[in-house]
Amino acid sequence: MTPGIRPLVAGNWKMNGTGASLNELRMIGNGFLGGLDAETEALVCVPATLLTRASEILSRTPVKAGGQDCHVRESGAFTGCISAEMLKDAGASHVIVGHSECRADRGEEDAEVCAKASAAWRAGLTAIICIGESNEQRQRGQALDVLSQQIAGSVPNTATPANAIVAYEPIWAIGTGLTPTAADVAEAHAHIRARLTEKLGPVAAKMRILYGGSVKPSNAVELLGVENVDGALVGGASLKAADFLGIAEAYQKM
Ligand SMILES: O=C(CO)COP(=O)(O)O
Predict the structure, then answer these.
(1) Ligand 1 contacts CB of residue 212 (under 6 A)
(2) ipTM of the complex, rounded to two decimals
(3) Which of 77, 101, 141, 207 has the most crowded Cβ, counting Cβ within 10 A?
(4) Where does substrate bind (predicted)?
(5) Class for domain 8-252, per CATH?
(6) d(Cα 121, Cα 79) in Å, to the nearest integer?
């Protein structure tokens, strides 16, 4: 946690969910409506196919709906792609950019991630910019250097706490049940805060830095309580309302 920063618990449904899953989303929305914790912000990034319905369901709750990726261009001959403007039109408030699964599957480089963050702002969305090292990079002792490079290349110089959120997702922790120790998370997040401050100046003190990778109710208090961890980006555990709400409840136990 960082004093003065309102934490964000964000779900990333990835390529999961059809209309039948919207009941879980309804329960997530109702959980926050029931006064879960007014100090905690919540967001669920659903597949684009569900965005219109999700944003309609969540519009009666404090929970926001987001997209999971966007194209850098506003429109054009890009079959199968979705622009930030389209996500905004469908009800998104945020979009994830640079997720390690997109970087790996589509060969996405830092410069493209940076352009996607700018595209998000053009459309009026907040960009959640993902960074994180692989297991090999960690074993070679390069984790912090990788984070420095990704921040240099993926975070636009015009990023502010209002339009950008950084998510630290060590690739080896995603979907594996493995998590870094609290000390490792603290080191990575302090490093990210320091590099953001070098790049953006004092505003970086107010920028949210989320942790992502195998967050679940049972480890949320430990991980979210770490200094400079301003919320979570949750994959698998965001698909079940009880788990997602259980993670958000961690803030009431601190
Ligand atoms: O990639 C993630 C969120 O973007 C994390 O996924 P898991 O929570 O399933 O490990």
Answers:
(1) yes
(2) 0.99
(3) 207
(4) 12-14, 175, 214, 235-236
(5) alpha beta
(6) 22
